[in-house]
# Entry
Amino acid sequence: MSDKVSRRQFAKIAGLSAAGMANPVGAVEVNPAPPPRTGTGFPAGFVWGTATSSYQVEGAVNEDGRGASIWDKFVRIPGKIEDGTTGDRANEHYHRYKEDIALIKELGCKAYRFSVAWPRVFPDGDGKPNPKGLDFYNRLVDELLKNGIEPWLTLYHWDLPQSLQDRFGGWRSTETCKIFGDYAAYVAEHLTDRVKNVFTLNESGRFVYFGYGIGIDAPGLTLPQAELNQIRHNSALAHGLAVQAVRAHGRHGTRVGPAENIDACAPAIDTPENVRAAEIALREMNGGYLNVIMTGQYTDAFLKFAGPNAPKYIDAELKIISSPVDFLGLNIYAPQNYVVASDQGAGFMPLPIPKSFPHMNSDWLRVGPETIYWVPKLAAKIWKTDAIYISENGTSGDDVVRPDGKIYDTDRIMYLRNYLAQLQRATSEGVPVRGYFLWSLMDNFEWVYGLNKRFGLYHVNFDTQVRTPKLSASFYRNVIATNAAGV
# Structure
């Protein structure tokens, strides 16, 4: 995936650009009450976790009645996966989950974010459920709880049943949204006696644009902008239907919310006018998904820019989409936009990113630690939420295995230390970030990169499936133990 695609194209995910925005709606001022603090670290009760997703780690794609997903088909298209690998085996987590849970416990994590493979539970997406599929997640949840680890479940992390793609065009149809709601109800009914926190869809901004717009991800389509806006609207509708399903079929007290790769905007210079510009930018650049979820309306600027490409909907759909959530999950890796105030158009101007801007092992992963300070702070203000979780943050690294068999990933430690210091800065100011999930527990199948990009705290030899802790695992263990960023 080129830097040009992964960064500049992300600006189109919300369907907006600086040139097309005008008359922004003013953000609402809120001041969340500061949580209790423990010395100079993070708030007391801060949730420390790590994360994976089903297709990236489970393997066993043809076992125990699992149906095919769009990724099972996509990875077999020549040239789509950088190293030609698939998720057929991945980390063998389906069989090694007890070993992997032991790794989570070793870190001291009290929470684990995982996703349910929709085609493992419903091989065709709908119809008759597969009891062996549900049984795996029952065993996984029980083993987590046995080890004192809270399960945080994601309903959808991109592995759409292929049957729904074939029959309805996947997320192009509201039929898929309705079926997703039924699937969410089934999972909630059977797992929320033990699972208390549920994420709905992971990264609509990524799977819509990359999967249906530029063909980089499954299902590999290149559709026009009008269809993309409609698909994004459908994914928001699916989110709302899932929220309602969890409320109706989950145990009392189950919490639910989205997990989105928010288009991260930060002020280039910390002055009142530039901070205000970043606030406007954050709302408008996320106008096609997060804002409609959190407010129940598309902004005037979004609709004006979309013009004839705007999604078609009825008011009843907006009510479903904006079903109240209990928390906001934000996946934050790198700044998409640094902005300054502007007296033109929308009131802000995104700045070009210089070629010399520092980045990690992945070219797209620019190092902007202040992003994880500004984005939650502004998001809490714009959308009046008092519970934000960093549902993903982490980095790929060089991860060279040294002659002594160890991985001294000081690049990852540098990245994490700086980001966590900025997150600690945010919580010290009362920004309501309640927890953090590091991506990822272990190296895994990294989508279009295959096995080439390693994001894990644990190195995985994909031939032997041996897991080896990297130096960053010790770093994160110390962060958790001290409840502080370690700066």
Remarks:
- The chain has 17 helices and 13 strands.
